[in-house]
């Protein structure tokens, strides 16, 4: 189970709303099962249906995570017009099998945040517990 503070959930949803109708993306880091940091990333694809984190930004975030002695716990992204479930492209590009993938759906004006694990094309639900 991934534990995400309520403030970070709100910040992720706000990020998704600010970037809509394009997809947003970012990285979550922390210790154990609890997220303590959110890193907003630029969607280099500038797309409504895909995202690509800029490599130079990824390197900066990975360096900061290491410096702060945190672990990368999840990659988040938005689905502005679809349900919160990994697409075929998400599965194909899931390069980090040890982290969760969090999807923020804004479909039909409703906000939903769901977590998943993607390993060798197998998708499983990763429960998210919102903590204060």
Total beta-strand segments: 8
Report strand %.
Answer: 35-45%
Radius of gyration: 13 Å
Give the neighbour order of strands across the main sheet.
3-2-4-5-6-7
In whole angstroms, the N-to-C terminal distance is: 15 Å
Give the class from helix and strand content and strand pairing.
alpha/beta
H/E topology pattern: EHEEHEHEEEE
Query: What does the largest sheet look like?
Result: 6 strands, mixed
How are the elements arranged and paired?
Layout: E1 2-5, H1 6-19, E2 25-31, E3 34-41, H2 55-67, E4 71-79, H3 88-92, E5 100-105, E6 112-119, E7 122-125, E8 128-131
What would you note in describing this structure?
It is a single chain. The chain has 132 residues and is of the alpha/beta class. The protein has one domain: Cytidine Deaminase, domain 2, CATH 3.40.140.10. Helix content is 24%, strand content 38%. It has three helices and eight strands, in the order E-H-E-E-H-E-H-E-E-E-E. It has helices spanning 6-19, 55-67, 88-92; strands at residues 2-5, 25-31, 34-41, 71-79, 100-105, 112-119, 122-125, 128-131. Strands 3-2-4-5-6-7 form a six-stranded mixed sheet. It has a two-stranded parallel sheet with strand order 1-8. A hairpin with a 6-residue loop joins strand 5 (100-105) and strand 6 (112-119). The radius of gyration is 13 Å and the shape is globular. The mean pLDDT is 96.
In short:
The chain has three helices and eight strands. With 132 residues, the chain is of the alpha/beta class.
């Amino acid at each position: 189970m991934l534990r995400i503070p309520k403030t970070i959930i709100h910040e992720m949803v706000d990020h998704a709303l600010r970037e809509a109708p394009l997809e947003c993306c970012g990285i979550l880091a922390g210790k154990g099962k609890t997220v303590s940091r959110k890193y907003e990333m630029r969607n280099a694809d500038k797309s409504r249906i895909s995202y690509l984190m800029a490599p130079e930004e990824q390197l900066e975030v990975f360096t900061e995570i290491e410096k702060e002695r945190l672990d990368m716990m999840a990659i988040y992204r938005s689905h502005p017009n679809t349900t919160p479930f990994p697409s075929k492209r998400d599965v194909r590009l899931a390069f980090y099998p040890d982290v969760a993938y969090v999807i923020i759906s804004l479909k039909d004006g409703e906000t939903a945040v769901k977590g998943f694990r993607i390993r060798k094309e197998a998708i499983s639900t990763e429960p998210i517990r919102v903590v204060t």
